[in-house]
């Protein structure tokens, strides 16, 4: 399994926590940055990582910014991405189970390192349930193909 990680400057420390947790679970991690505390715009890092996931070059992604909201908005603009901000293990399980989310978004300013480990474990231990939820995910995919 391969995951791509990215963050802006406000999510750097939490991204590193996530990377360690993923590695401890024997998941290959491709850290796309940022790697320094210099200001970086979250739409830029979210786009790069989301495109890697959308192309199938990674199984999933983890994006981190101050709240998780900015990276989720940006990532969800990329067709094929279902990014979810999760602040609890329950939300992470439901994002995977019901929405087949393929990008987990976290907020360093609102979620501590211990909780992030629990969120990641819930995310990793949950698979898409399919069934009635597949119809809904298919409707999301159809929205991506609609023109104005």
End-to-end separation: 37 Å
Major sheet details: 5 strands, parallel
Average pLDDT metric: 96
How many helices?
A: 6
CATH architecture: 3-Layer(aba) Sandwich
Spatial strand sequence of the major β-sheet: 2-1-3-5-4
Briefly, what CATH class? Alpha Beta
Structural class: alpha/beta
Return the CATH topology.
Ribose 5-phosphate Isomerase B, Chain: A
What coarse outline follows from CA principal-axis ratios?
globular
Description:
The chain is α/β, with parallel strands linked by helices. The protein has one domain: 3-Layer(aba) Sandwich (Ribose 5-phosphate Isomerase B, Chain: A), CATH 3.40.1400.10. 47% of the residues lie in helices and 16% in strands. The protein contains 6 helices and 5 strands, in the order βαβαβαβαβαα. Strand 1 (2-7), helix 1 and strand 2 form a beta-alpha-beta unit. The mean pLDDT is 96.
In brief, what are we looking at here?
With 148 residues, the chain is of the alpha/beta class. The chain is built from 6 helices and 5 strands, in the order E-H-E-H-E-H-E-H-E-H-H. Helix 1 links the parallel strand 1 and strand 2.
Give the secondary structure arrangement, pairings included:
Blueprint: E1 2-7, H1 12-24, E2 28-31, H2 42-54, E3 60-65, H3 69-75, E4 83-85, H4 89-99, E5 103-107, H5 113-124, H6 132-145
Parallel strand pairs: 1-2, 1-3, 3-5, 4-5
Helix pairs in contact: 1-5, 2-3, 4-5
Please supply descriptive tags for the structure shown above.
globular, 5 strands, Ribose 5-phosphate Isomerase B, Chain: A, 148 residues, alpha/beta
